[in-house]
Amino acid sequence: MRAAAWIGLATIAALVAAARADDYPVRPVRIINPWPAGGSSDSVARVVAAQLSEVLGQQVVIDNRPGATGTIGAAVVAKSPADGYTLMVTTNSTYAIAPHLYHALPYDSATAFAPINLIGRNAQILCVNPALPATDLNGFVAHVKAHPDQVPFSTAGQGATSHLATELLMMTADIRMMHVPYRGGAPSVQAVLAGETSASFVDVITALPFVASGQLRALGASTLERAAMLPDVPTIDAAGLPGFQSSTDFAMFAPAATPPDIVAKLVAATHRALHGGDVEERLRSQGIELVDGGPDMFGAYFKAELDKWGRVIETRGIHLEL
Of 67, 78, 145, 247, whose CB has the highest number of CB atoms within 10 Å? Predict the structure, then answer.
């Protein structure tokens, strides 16, 4: 009788779960963006959320929880009820880089989240102040080798993709520069413009007007394909460092235990949202190329990113404290 009772309860629970999945969503959905309002990650989240609201038939709201390379907001998502009403949109700084930088995270990035969609990819441009005597990548590498630890580079902060891209560059080219971290991409770019630093990886949409005006010199794109906004700039891979690849990638996650039926609904809804309205056009206007990679493609990519940046961080001896 006791066994029959347990079987009955399990059947009821399964039916309730199925009913919830069929009805989902019945109330507003929250997307946590673990970066400050106004940044590229926040902008992507808001563009996607607006169209996702139409697809789901419920309001999708953005909740910014910035701090510690996105790990503060990610921890909130990891601990949230796995019911499809709390999601996360963030960059690979949070889900692929930060887990190797911080050794006391309250969650395991590899197992705490269910991947929904790899939304898009933003190329970064290796930019230098025109006063630097280098007109191409090879000249830049030669200059840095002749002045080890003397050429300052700025980044959006410790652990940002602009930081790790430069660490990857130094590791690949066997060069040494001096890191000057700033609190965000804007002050980092201003530092190069003012000559306070000599170089930085800059998001393509930010770099575009300064390269066009001659205030910055573009030496190479970080992605394996040329950036659509700056098609005349060669890739770093083609310009002299084969295999170099780095980018700011934007992705959506749910808590790991979210029911498969709800995950499937979110995957389908996000796919529709990314191809609905003017979403793709708005993302491209920010220099972000649409990827729209579902869980199968996303899973392989996620593991590759975790492994790649783990190797870079271990090799370069980078470590941060929360």
Answer: 247
Two tokens at 131? 């006063």
Residue 159 lies in a domain: yes
E-assigned strand segments in 193-293: 199-203, 217-221, 248-255, 288-293
Paired sense of beta strands 124-128 and 113-122, if any: unpaired
Reading the block at residue 142, the tokens are 């030669």
Residues spanned by the domain of 138:
124-239
Strand extents, DSSP E, the chain:
29-33, 60-64, 86-91, 113-122, 124-128, 152-155, 178-181, 199-203, 217-221, 248-255, 288-293
Per-residue burial over 196-223, b if 16 or more Cβ lie within 10 Å, else e, is ebbbbbbbbbbbbebbeeeebbbbbbbb
One domain, residues 82 and 221:
no
In whole angstroms, what is the distance from residue 56 CA to residue 270 CA? 9
Neighbours of 193 (CB within 10 A): 16
Q: Which residues neighbour 69 within 8 Å (Cβ) at sequence distance 6 or greater?
A: 93, 94, 97, 98, 101, 102, 157, 158, 159, 160, 320
Quote the number of domains for the chain: 2
DSSP structural state of residue 235: B
The model's pLDDT over 211-244, given as tens digits with 9 standing for 90+, comes to 999 999 999 999 999 999 999 999 999 999 999 9
Q: In angstroms, rounded to a whole number, what is the distance separating the alpha carbons of residues 101 and 245? A: 20
- Clarify whether residues 142 and 278 are in a common domain: no
**How far, in Å, CA of 88 to CA of 253, rounded?**
5
pTM of the model: 0.86
